[in-house]
Design goal:
The protein is built from 4 helices and 7 strands. It has one domain: Alpha-Beta Complex (Nucleoside Triphosphate Pyrophosphohydrolase). Strands 1, 2, 3, 4, 5, 6 and 7 form a 7-stranded mixed β-sheet that branches. It has helices at 4-7, 52-64, 114-120, 124-136; strands at residues 9-19, 26-33, 38-40, 43-45, 66-81, 84-98, 108-112. The chain is an alpha+beta fold.
Length: 140
C-alpha cells in the first residue's frame, strides 16, 4: 500500500527581494503565470533527488532570469493541489543580477513593496510569506 507521504508533490521556491534601484526601499519579486492567471512567488516542482534549496534557486533563475543569494529558510507551505498533497519549501533570497525574459510559464514579473505584493498575490497562503520574509530580515 502506498503511503500518503509518497504521493506528496515536493516543490521549492524563494521569496525574492532586492533594494529598489530608485529609492533603496525593499521590493519583492512576484511572477505572473498565464496558465493560471495568478501572481505568486517563484517556485516549482523538484526534480527527482534534487536538493530543495538547489531546486528553489533553479526555479528563481528559470522564472525570473535573476540569480539569487539564499538567506533564511521560511515556513513550509502545505496544501492540496489537483487532489494531491503539495509541500513547498521556501527561502528568503536576495536578488542578484539577471534579466527577465517572458516565456510560456511566466509572462510577467513585478517588483513591488511588501504591502503591494501582499495585495497582488493571488493565494492567501503566499501573503503570509511576505511577513515571514520581513521577520527574517528583521524588518517586521
Amino acid at each position: 500500500m502506498t503511503q500518503a507521504k509518497d504521493l506528496t508533490v515536493r516543490a521549492a521556491g524563494c521569496v525574492l527581494w532586492r533594494r529598489s534601484p530608485a529609492d533603496g526601499e525593499l521590493e519583492i519579486c512576484l511572477i505572473h503565470r498565464p496558465k493560471y492567471d495568478d501572481w505568486s512567488h517563484p517556485k516549482g516542482k523538484l526534480k527527482r533527488g534534487e536538493d530543495p534549496l538547489e531546486g528553489a534557486l533553479r526555479e528563481v533563475t528559470e522564472e525570473t532570469g535573476h540569480t539569487a543569494r539564499p538567506g533564511a529558510e521560511l515556513p513550509t507551505v502545505r496544501y492540496v493541489a489537483n487532489g494531491r498533497p503539495k509541500e513547498v519549501r521556501y527561502w528568503a533570497a536576495e536578488s542578484g543580477p539577471g534579466t527577465f525574459t517572458p516565456g510560456p510559464e511566466v509572462d510577467r514579473i513585478r517588483w513591488l513593496s511588501p504591502a503591494a505584493a501582499r495585495r497582488r498575490l493571488t493565494q492567501p497562503r503566499d501573503r503570509t510569506l511576505v511577513d515571514d520574509l520581513l521577520e527574517s530580515l528583521h524588518l517586521a
